[in-house]
Every structure is written in structure tokens, then in C-alpha cells.
Amino acid sequence: MSLIFKICPQDLWREAEASGSFHGAPVDLKDGFIHFSTAEQVRETAAKHFAGKDDLLLVAVEGDRLGDALRWEVSRGGALFPHLYGPLALDTVAWVKPLALGPDGHQFPPLEG
């Protein structure tokens, strides 16, 4: 299982759970795809885009189940980031865990399955 990660405000994720799929946060809707990060990228993503924000969830998704809608595209510093072109089906989610904000930034749970 190849996990990719989405940092998501808790209220947006609860809406997705109620509707059965996740269509993205405002930045995703603006860009036309859902932004994800790998395990190696997600801490930097949190620091860059979610610094000081709490009430977040870390959503682990089985990337290999997303098919052709998942594309690896060049982003920050030339790194390849996973982008999903289409809604995220909730049955591809491996787990959802709180992403607590501590005194030194976000406190990540173990990122393996």
C-alpha cells in the first residue's frame, strides 16, 4: 500500500464523510485538483501552508487505488507531488487522524499504514 497524505480542516472532512466524497479544500478547487503530499513531503507542507493552524486532520489515502486521476507533477523545488484530478472516494482512505498543534509545530502520528 502506497500512502499519500492530505491535511484537511476537520469541518471540511466531516462534510466529506457526510456526502460520501471529498471534492477538495478552497485551494484545491481553485487549482483544479486535490493537493496531496508523500510521507517525505507532508511535514514541510504543514509548516508552509498550515503553520499555526489547529483543528486539522491528517488523511492517509491509498494512492495506488486512485487510478489515472492521480498524477505526479512538479511543484516545490522541482519535487514531484501527487495531485488528484477528481473527487476523492472515501473508500480509498486508509485512516484519518488528528494533526495536533504543539509548541514546536504540528505533531504527526506515525505515517505507516
Automatic annotation (TrEMBL):
InterPro entries: DUF952. Coiled coil: none annotated. It comes from the Bacteria. This is DUF952 domain-containing protein.
